């Protein structure tokens, strides 16, 4: 990342990762509370209950994460201004994208526990991580051919363009 778009954008990416890590704490707390119940249900050969509990875990994680992150997403420039004073270029954009991605990832967080309880980790990890891995060559090609960093986002409309 640093090689293609520079140190400032790399710093913005690092800050966005810190913000995402801090906000994911809540979702993992929900998962840690429900994982033993999911495992217990699967151990009792009650797979329907295990999947029901994993669906509840995912729903609650998305709901609570959304309640917290949606206002943060909209107020990201103000929050970063308090924290950093001088906001790096693309920092607000990177933070918003990562937080939206975090909300989307919570939709399957309960299924991860269910698959761990079942013991089907190989297939689950291949399925989930292969889709994420496909983005790497696309991103590399975009950066290699000097496409603007916002190329995938050209059709999106942002309200405060000075903070991109």
Describe the 3D structure:
The structure is a single chain. α2 (7-43) packs across α6 and α3 (47-74) runs antiparallel to α5. The two termini are 17 Å apart. With 164 residues, the chain is mostly helical. Helix content is 77%, strand content 0%. Mean pLDDT is 79; it is low at 152-164.
List the topology elements:
Layout: H1 2-5, H2 7-43, H3 47-74, H4 76-84, H5 91-105, H6 109-118, H7 121-133, H8 135-144
Helix pairs in contact: 2-3, 2-5, 2-6, 3-5, 3-6
Keywords:
single chain; 164 residues; mainly alpha; flat; disordered C terminus
Short description:
Helices cover 77% and strands 0% of the residues. With 164 residues, the chain is mostly helical.
Helical fraction equals over 70%
Query: How many β strands by DSSP?
Result: 0
Q: Main beta sheet, described?
A: none
Computed over alpha carbons, the radius of gyration is: 19 Å
H/E series: HHHHHHHH
Portion in beta strands: under 5%
Any low-confidence stretches, pLDDT <50, length ≥5?
152-164
Cα separation of the termini: 17 Å
Return the structural class: mainly alpha
- What is the average of the pLDDT values? 79
Number of helices: 8
Shape, principal axes of CA atoms: flat
């Amino acid at each position: 990342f640093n090689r293609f778009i520079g140190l400032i954008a790399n710093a913005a990416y690092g800050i966005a990762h810190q913000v995402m890590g801090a906000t994911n704490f809540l979702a993992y707390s929900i998962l840690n509370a429900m994982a033993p119940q999911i495992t217990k249900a699967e151990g009792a050969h009650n797979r329907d209950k295990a999947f029901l509990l994993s669906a509840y875990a995912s729903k609650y994680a998305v709901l609570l994460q959304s309640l917290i992150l949606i206002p943060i997403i909209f107020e990201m420039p103000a929050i970063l201004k308090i924290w950093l004073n001088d906001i790096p270029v693309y920092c607000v954009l990177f933070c918003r994208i990562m937080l939206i991605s975090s909300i989307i990832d919570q939709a399957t967080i309960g299924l991860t526990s269910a698959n761990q309880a079942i013991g089907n980790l190989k297939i689950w990890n291949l399925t989930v991580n292969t889709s994420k891995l496909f983005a790497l060559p696309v991103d590399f090609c975009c950066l290699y051919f000097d496409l603007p960093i916002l190329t995938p986002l050209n059709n999106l409309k942002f309200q405060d363009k000075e903070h991109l």
